[in-house]
Design brief:
about 350 residues; alpha+beta; TBP-like; Glutaredoxin; 4 domains; five-stranded mixed beta sheet; 11 strands; about 45% helix; rod-shaped
Length: about 350
């Protein structure tokens, strides 16, 4: 359950190293100290010690440095979570404090803002809310000054305490409790004291009479609820991790779809090549059959037939035979020629 949330702007002097120094100083000087912590400026860091867990993550896709510190109380069975989200581009800080109770928790103790938040909000790095500096003390203004504040339209709510002799609640206690969530303003009036919360949108809410402690809780719950509705609904660190995972899953799905399409295209090309191969094999088989047919036709002409002429043209036959005879006469009788054997056979068959 969220117990505190604030969203503030920081100046250009603020950076990652400044934030980490605030974090480690706070841990070293409180019961949240981790004896063997050794952070080497990693982009992704998780360290556990006893019942404490520190996570530091550089969410580059969101231009955000995220810090989440978790500690558990075994006796009271309560878990506390402190989160700081630093947007490097917008130069903003989101501060969240959560408390998780188990069913058999011993008791619920009063909640105070972690000193890490107090140190950050009270530093020179936090910019004013328009003309109003973010303070942990109340402001005592005249009606004219309050009118000027209204015209300036600050982003944080204004808790207006009117008083005749004294306020309905201690303004210092209320301002300390609502540090970073609202500006507490005391306004002297002749009327009965009251408490109102004015918002930048122009709407406002007043509270009925009740005990001082109840009024402080009611004011705090009102401004906290407004702040949470505007910004944080759950663990900010986990939300960014979830967004990153969804983005990675989306990219993975896109790649899977791309490769599926590629595989389908390749399979189609392979099938086309197989079809071409099949057609070539068929054509080769046909050529093989034609070759065998031609061979059989040649053999059918007779093994001794070396020369065939058209019987219908005896003149051409006589001319060829005469040329063969001349060839035989020109051969050297002292040498053995394959040509001589062939020519002699042709003349023998056609004599």
């Amino acid at each position: 359950m969220i117990q505190y949330y604030a969203h503030v702007q920081v100046n250009d002097s603020f950076n990652r190293q400044v934030l980490l120094k605030f974090l480690f100083d706070w841990m070293a000087n409180s019961k949240n100290k981790m004896e063997y912590l050794n952070y080497q400026n990693e982009d992704s860091f998780i360290y556990k010690e006893n019942r404490k867990i520190l996570k530091i993550e550089n969410f580059k896709e969101a231009d955000t440095l995220g810090i989440q510190f978790t500690t558990s109380d075994n006796y009271k069975k309560i878990q506390f979570v402190v989160e700081v989200m630093y947007n490097i581009i917008n130069q903003t800080l989101d501060l969240g404090f959560y408390k998780e109770l188990k069913v058999d928790s011993r008791y619920i103790e009063a909640i105070s803002i972690p000193n890490l938040f107090v140190n950050l909000l009270d530093s020179e790095y936090v910019l004013p809310d328009h003309s109003l500096k973010i303070l942990k003390e109340p402001r005592f203004l005249s009606r004219k000054q309050l009118t000027e504040v209204y015209q300036d339209l600050p982003q944080l709510p204004l808790i207006i305490l009117t008083k005749k002799d004294r306020c309905l609640v201690n303004p210092f206690s209320l301002a300390k409790r609502c540090f970073g969530l609202a500006h507490v303003i005391c306004l002297k009036t002749d009327k009965q004291p009251e408490i109102k919360v004015h918002y930048s949108k122009g709407n406002w809410i007043s509270f009925p009479w009740m005990k001082e402690s109840q009024l402080i809780k009611a004011c705090y719950a009102e401004v906290l609820n407004d702040s949470v509705q505007e910004h944080a609904q759950s663990y900010m660190f986990d939300e960014l991790l979830k967004s990153r995972l969804q983005e990675e899953m989306s990219v993975s799905t896109e790649l899977e779809n791309y490769y599926q399409v590629s595989v389908q295209e390749i399979s189609q090309e392979v099938e086309e090549y197989r079809q071409i191969q099949k057609e070539l094999m068929t054509e080769m088989e046909q050529l093989k059959k034609k070759k065998e047919k031609l061979e059989r036709e040649v053999l059918a002409l007779g093994k001794d037939t070396l020369f065939v002429t058209n019987e219908n043209n005896p003149e051409k036959k006589e001319l060829l035979l005469e040329l063969i005879k001349k060839t035989l006469r020109s051969l050297n009788n002292n040498e053995i020629y394959r040509r001589e054997d062939v020519c002699a056979s042709i003349l023998k068959e056609n004599s």
